[in-house]
Amino acid sequence: MSIQSENYRIIRSKRKTISIEVTPDLEVIVRAPRWVAKRDIRYFVDEKEGWIKKTLARLEKVRESEGDKPDIRLTNDELNALKKQAKDIIPERVSYYAAKLGVTYGTITIRHQKTRWGSCSAKGNLNFNCLLMLAPPEVLDAIVVHELCHRKVMDHSDRFYKEVYKVYPDYDKWNKWLKDHGAELQRRNPS
Hints:
Layout: E1 8-13, E2 19-22, E3 28-33, H1 38-47, H2 49-65, H3 76-101, E4 108-111, E5 118-120, E6 126-129, H4 137-149, H5 158-167, H6 171-186
Parallel strand pairs: 1-3, 4-6
Antiparallel strand pairs: 2-3, 5-6
Helix pairs in contact: 2-6, 3-4, 4-6
């Protein structure tokens, strides 16, 4: 059974590539350039169907296991404290790993995002989610290395991951931790 078009939302923008995101609320979002035809988006979703279903199943399992737990939302003061902590810690980790990788970067922005842990623009500007302060430090390092490796390779090819593993051999372990526990962290966002 394939994923029907009514089961995902398309967001069009000036971006250059198509991506798929599954939110902690089990919503499938397809981000696409304005110029891409609907049939091409449909083809892309069909290609990624296995990943989408696997991700939805994993997130449903996480939600079920957390069903008995109270929903602990951060207050705005707690969120601001996390942002301040992130502004103290993340630039230091970025500087450390940028030197190891031999890359430069632009500005570092700390936000509280509902779906992303980090990003790297084509100009080398880096964005990080302040909720990373709630994860083990190794998870933060994994995200920092991931984003900085985009300064060398702007995709998720084998070449990209070779760069990641060169600097951070435990990347898979901590990336899995984030996949397993990230939805729980995201649910702490203030409403």
